[in-house]
Design brief:
Two copies of one chain form a homodimer. With 238 residues, chain A is an alpha+beta fold. Helices cover 29% and strands 34% of the residues of chain A. A six-stranded antiparallel beta sheet of chain A has the order 3-4-5-8-7-6. In chain A, strands 1-2 form a two-stranded antiparallel sheet. The longest helix of chain A is centred in the N-terminal third of the chain and has 14 residues. The first copy, chain A, is elongated. Chain A starts with a helix and ends with a strand. About 4% of the residues of chain A have low confidence. Chains A and B meet through strand 6, strand 7 and strand 9 of A and strand 6, strand 7 and strand 9 of B. Chain A binds a DNA duplex (21 and 21 nucleotides) through helix 3.
Chain lengths: 238, 238
DNA sequence: GCTAATTTGTTCGTATGTATA
DNA sequence: TTATACATACGAACAAATTAG
C-alpha cells in the first residue's frame, strides 16, 4: 500500500485514531517512543505526524505532546476535492449521470472572463445532470482543456472524468480553488433540475490546476439548495 | 517578524510570488540554489517550500522543480478561518456589530445535540448581528465554553472575540470544522436581518477546537444568501 | 536511445533550543 | 532543577524522476 516508512507510520496512527485506540483529546505516544517502536529516525516519525496534523487529525504542542483532535461526524460528506462519484459511493446513494451536452468550443472573450482560460484555447464543454435517488439534484457545466482530455467519450463523461484523467492518462492534479455562492436559478437550471418551489441554487465554481500550475478545468456546479452540503476543516493561520 | 530561518525563506518566496517576480506556471530557483543563497541546509529550504505548498502557492514535481501555482483573485474574500473583523478589514467595508443577546447558560440535552458540548457544561450564549455598509447581513449565534472566555464584556463581543482569546488570553486555536448548507429563514432571521424577498439563508456551522483538541466554540452563522461568498483551496488527496 | 547531470523525495544521525511537567 | 517532549537546524547519503547533451 504505502512504499515509504513515513506513510506506514501515518497509516498506523490514523488507524489507531479510527479504532479509538488513540482517543480524542488524549496524547499519542511521544515521538521518541514511536521512533523506537518503528526503528526509524525521529524525522520520519515527525513527517507522519505533520501530515496528520495538516489533515486535522493531530495537533502538536511543544513540551506537552501530540494530541488527537476531535471531529464531529458528518453523515453527508461532500467535501474537499472529491468528485461526484466518489462521494456518492461513500454515502451509498443511487446515482446516475446524463450528459445532454458534449462539444468542443473555442474560448472567446466572454467565456474567457468566466473560465479564466486564455482566449483562443480549445476546450471541451460538457453539461452533466446528476441524479440522486431518482431526483435531478446537480447541474454541472464543465470546461476542460481539450488536449488534456483527448479521447473523452460520453461514456467516460457519465462515469468519472477525474478517474479517467488520473488513472488512464496519468495526469497529476494539485488541487482546486472553490467559490461558493447562492444565486437565482437560471432557465437552464429550471430545465434540467427537479427544483421544488425553490428559486435559488447553490453555485460552486471550481478552478482546478495541474501539478505545474496549469488551469485545466473550470466547472460551475448548480446544486438544488435543499440538498447542498459542504464541509471543510480549516486550520487557523498563525 | 519571523524568528526561524525557514520562516524567513517562506516569507522571501511568498514575497517574490506576490511581486510577480516568480510567475505562475514557472519554476522557482532549485532547492540547492536557495540553500546556497541563504547559507542554510537543504532541509530548511524544503520546510519553507512544503509550507507554501500546503498553502497552495507552490507545487513540487520530482525531477522537474518547484512550480508557482496560479490563483484566481476573489474580490470578496470571506474564507477559511477568518473572523468577521479580519475579512471586513481586508475588503475595506464599513461594518458594525450589535449584540442583542449575551447570557450564560447550562447545556441541556437539546442544546448538546446541536453544539456537541457535553450536557451540564457552562457556556456563553451570544447573538450577534453583523451590519455591512448599513445592511444587516449576518446573524451569528455563538456558544463559547465559559471558563475559556472568562471576562467577556459586550464591548469585546462587539469587537473581536478571537482577538481577545488569542492576544489577551493566549488561547491557542487549532482550527475549525465548517458545514455549509442552505435553509429556510427562521423567525429570528426575519427579526434581525434585512432580508429581501429572500426566504432562505446560508447557514455556516462552525465547530472550533483548541490545540489540545477541546471543542470550545459552536457558532451558527446565518448569512443573507445574496451576500454570501465562501472560498477555499482544496488540495487533491493522493 | 543512452548517459550524465540536475532536481526533488526519503531517510538517517546528531546537536541544540524551547516549552512543559 | 531536572527530565521529558516537541521545534529547529545541519550535513550526508541514496533513490527516483526528469532533462540535457
Amino acid at each position: 500500500m504505502s512504499n515509504s516508512k513515513y506513510m506506514e507510520i501515518y497509516e498506523y496512527i490514523k488507524k489507531n485514531i479510527k479504532n479509538e485506540n488513540y482517543l480524542p483529546g488524549e496524547k499519542i505516544p511521544s515521538e521518541n517512543q514511536l521512533k523506537d517502536f518503528f526503528s526509524v529516525s525521529r524525522n520520519t516519525v515527525r513527517k507522519a505526524i505533520e501530515l496528520l496534523a495538516s489533515d486535522g487529525y493531530l495537533s502538536s504542542i511543544q513540551g506537552k505532546g501530540v494530541f488527537v483532535m476531535k471531529k464531529i461526524p458528518v453523515t453527508f460528506l461532500l467535501s474537499g476535492n472529491q468528485s461526484f462519484k466518489e462521494s456518492s459511493a461513500k454515502n451509498r446513494l443511487r446515482y446516475s449521470t446524463s450528459v445532454p451536452v458534449l462539444e468542443a468550443v473555442v474560448v472567446d472573450e466572454k467565456l474567457s472572463e468566466i473560465t479564466h482560460f486564455p482566449v483562443g484555447e480549445l476546450v471541451y464543454h460538457l453539461v452533466r445532470v446528476r441524479e440522486i435517488n431518482g431526483e435531478k439534484i446537480i447541474l454541472d457545466e464543465n470546461y476542460f482543456l481539450k488536449d488534456i482530455l483527448k479521447g473523452l467519450t460520453p461514456e467516460i463523461a457519465c462515469d468519472s472524468i477525474y478517474e479517467f484523467l488520473e488513472e488512464k492518462k496519468g495526469v497529476k492534479i494539485n488541487g482546486a480553488q472553490k467559490i461558493i455562492s447562492v444565486e437565482k436559478a437560471t432557465e437552464l437550471d429550471k430545465e434540467y433540475l427537479d427544483l421544488n418551489k425553490d428559486n435559488v441554487v447553490v453555485i460552486v465554481k471550481n478552478f482546478a490546476y495541474l501539478e505545474n500550475g496549469l488551469l485545466f478545468e473550470y466547472t460551475e456546479s448548480h446544486h438544488r439548495s435543499d440538498k447542498f452540503v459542504f464541509t471543510s476543516y480549516a486550520k487557523r493561520e498563525k
